Prior knowledge:
By secondary structure, the protein is α+β, with helices and mostly antiparallel strands. It has a single domain, classed as q2cbj1_9rhob like domain (Jelly Rolls, Sandwich), CATH 2.60.120. 25% of the residues lie in helices and 26% in strands. The protein is built from 7 helices and 10 strands. It has helices at residues 5-15, 26-42, 58-61, 66-69, 72-82, 227-232, 234-241; strands at residues 17-20, 52-55, 86-96, 103-108, 127-133, 142-147, 170-171, 178-183, 187-192, 199-208. The strands form 2 sheets. The protein has a 6-stranded antiparallel β-sheet. Strands 4-9-6-7 form a 4-stranded antiparallel β-sheet, with no helix packed on it. Helix 1 (5-15) crosses helix 5. The protein is globular, with a radius of gyration of 17 Å.
Amino acid sequence: MMIDTKLKAREVNEYGYCVLESVYNEDECRQMRAALESLCDERGGLTPDIAYRSFHPFLQLRPEMGTFFGKAEVVETMAEVLQDDVHLVHSGGRVSGGYVKPIMVPWHHHYSWEIPSGGLNRDQPERILCNIYVDGSIPEVGQLVVLPRGLNDPIDQPFQDKWVDWPGQMVVYAPPGSVVIFDTALWHTAKRGTQPGNRHLCGGHYQGWHNPKPHHEDNNSDSSGLAMYKRDLSVLRRLIDGS
Length: 243
């Protein structure tokens, strides 16, 4: 598929996020869903007391999923957003189901670096999230909700209660197999789906290779099990090794 990477980078700078629709086909989504479900089952599944399961580093646990992280058109879009070659610095996965609250997680962001006294003064995000919405961001399975922001808007929490709708929020629609790329400074949450069943999500945090600044959510996705996938897929190898 053809993606206007400059347009998508501009959307991230202007709104804090962009959507790449239906990047992954039905078979690819089935494979990702099966990998996430198997991890969830290995850890005891979902219960009324455990409404979701998270898996980190996802690519160490399921290295065969590296082929989906190495999707060329997605990496090219991230490179345009970051204005740099792309480095995978965190991989994760998540399965949630009907036991979650109507608002699945409290409002939050992932920006953790010191903000200058004069506020942010960035040309592009230092770090982004790129998540694969295996089942989509649709009412039936649950939707991503964001508070749009400009690149250098303040990050301070704008409202006190993190478990309610916020004025100005936007509910993101994306069909199954879509990707959402967003600035770590973007406040976001998610709504529970209207239909029974599990919601599947995987993805990563990415920085430019010229930005080695550590972050408390960094994890190492590399493993001996990933070696064959890196050998066969140069895009994935560059994400992990830089060459």
